[in-house]
Amino acid sequence: MTEQQPSEPTEQRPTDSGTDSGTDSGTAGRAGISGRRAVGILGILVVVLVGVFAWMTLRDNARPVDIEDAKNRISTTVDLEAKGEQGEGEQGPTPSTERVRPAPGIYRFTGEGTESLSTPPLSQSQGPEMPATVEHDGDDCWTFRIDYSTNHWQQWRYCWSGDDLVETGGTTWQRWVIGPTSIANTGVFECTDETVVIPAERGDGASWTGTCVGTNDAAEGEMTSTGPYRFAGETTLAVGDTNLDVLHFVRERTMSGAQTGTERTDVWFDAETGLPVRNERNLEAETDTVIGASTYTEQGWFQLAELGTL
């Protein structure tokens, strides 16, 4: 008989729970990675949403003003009957004082510009279409309004004083759109009798002093703008196919009071009618607000694109 060898006892190994622990660790690790990914994706979404909100809130909402809209706005205020007797684009009737003025109506201007606020950080554009409106005021006065955009227009009032054309005052309206909210600001100013814009006696380099005082909704108190006004000479500007004779003036102003700052404006007036044919401006003004000092800057130009009214 074959002798059987005693079998060796089977080694009882303790159950290794490392496999289960390893599985749990792997699951936890993957969960941690997924969690971090989720947080990362959420962070990206937040950044995107903030960016979209900022774009929706601070984006440029200004648009060019349509010519037809400008016509409709003045259809009940401009003396269209008197204009119609002359035909579109022609000089209106001579006032009783025999002072020449631009014909009332809408003029086609083009240009471009940018206006910005430092606080809050906002910016909006001007142009390229900028309809202008001329309205007669009595026998000796008239107003010129330029629509920079749907968010900004400015109007000047001119009158004959003896043989000089002077600026008597004007109005500025501006709107800033912040998301669903819009903030409008209206400024009104009056100028001294000495604020001449086209003097009868002038020579190259001759200079006068102009002063205007105004208020606006954005600042408490009055703002005074004063400085030299210089005749830079006679020249011509191309308007369509016509070289128009113009008078070039340079205005430099310093602002004090409720707003402080500086302004330089070059203006070319039609030598015959006094219509502003071209305007180049650069201004900076600081205003104290409830959220701190805010600096407003504006740079731009506009020029008559075709002769006559539309």
Explain this structure:
The chain contains 3 helices and 15 strands. The chain is an alpha+beta fold. It has a 15-stranded antiparallel β-sheet that branches. The longest helix is centred in the N-terminal third of the chain and has 41 residues, at 18-58. The model is unreliable at 1-23, 37-58 and 78-97 (pLDDT under 50).
Global shape: globular
Distance between the termini: 131 Å
Biggest pleated-sheet summary = 15 strands, antiparallel
Please provide the ordered H/E string of secondary-structure elements.
HHHEEEEEEEEEEEEEEE
Global mean pLDDT: 82
Number of strands: 15
β-strand amount? over 45%
Instruction: Please identify the structural class as seen in this structure.
Output: alpha+beta
Low-confidence stretches: 1-23, 37-58, 78-97
SS element count, helices: 3
Radius of gyration: 35 Å
Give a concise summary.
The chain is of the alpha+beta class and 310 residues long. The chain contains 3 helices and 15 strands. The protein is 18% helix and 51% strand.
Label this structure with key terms.
310 residues, alpha+beta, 18% helix
Note the topology.
Layout: H1 18-58, H2 67-74, H3 80-86, E1 105-107, E2 109-117, E3 122-126, E4 132-137, E5 141-149, E6 152-161, E7 164-178, E8 181-191, E9 196-198, E10 207-216, E11 219-239, E12 242-257, E13 259-270, E14 276-289, E15 292-304
Antiparallel strand pairs: 1-4, 2-3, 2-15, 4-5, 5-6, 6-7, 7-8, 7-9, 8-10, 10-11, 11-12, 12-13, 13-14, 14-15
